[in-house]
Design goal:
Blueprint (H helix, E strand, L loop, with lengths): L6 E6 L14 H16 L3 E6 L10 H4 L3 H25 L4 E5 L8 E2 L2 H9 L3 E5 L9 H11 L4 E6 L4 E2 L11 E2 L1 E3 H6 L7 H9 L4 E5 L5 H6 L6 E4 L1
Parallel strand pairs: 1-2, 1-6, 2-5, 3-4, 3-5, 6-10, 9-11
Antiparallel strand pairs: 7-8, 10-11
Helix pairs in contact: 1-3, 5-7
Amino acid sequence: MLPKYKRVLVKLSGESLMGSNSYGLDPAVIEQYSRDIKEIADLGVQVAVVIGGGNIYRGMNEAETGIERAHGDYMGMLATVINGMALQAMLEKVGVFTRLQSAIKMEQIAEPYIRRRAIRHVEKGRVVIFGAGTGNPYFTTDTAGSLRAIEIQADVILKGTRVDGIYTADPEKDPTAKKYDTITFNECIQNDLRVMDMTAFTLCKENNLPIIVFDMNKPGNLMKVVCGERVGTLVKG
């Protein structure tokens, strides 16, 4: 089986790591993701990963919590590093060489993010996990995923979600929602389909970086996407 893409960035939500739990990490989900990533890495695909932190801490409304937005965003960045460490541990358990890079310096557990070093790692077949978002408040991990994908010259962003693509409406709420196989960036904006936050989405649009939204919870889907099978929804120019 020949991969369609040489270098990919996999974007995972923190919530996906909870599995059926209401908080924290589900080891079974992390193992499934790790085995799926190993499958494509064994094919020779160069892989980088960005994970959110919503399963541990999500930036909340300042008026409700009393925690100012910037402070809360830094807390969320630290949560993404915890998730990155969990994925790193499981990837190495299943036999994948990894590097964890953090946009916030924490030398004891992660390398600092250095673009050229990250590229060299993926060229050598290591899976690079990018933690701590962009290192700046007011930016989401979707934006971090888009930014890192562009920086390392990835061919595509693979956005793993709980649903199997982009629909005309939320399929969990509207049973009549129809799924798109392919859609343009402009159509997503016109129809207010919130694939990513607007900053992240605009970065992809301006740099002509395609996005594939697919169900990461189905084992084997990542391999199908990488090999060009029609899984999920492709967003392109």
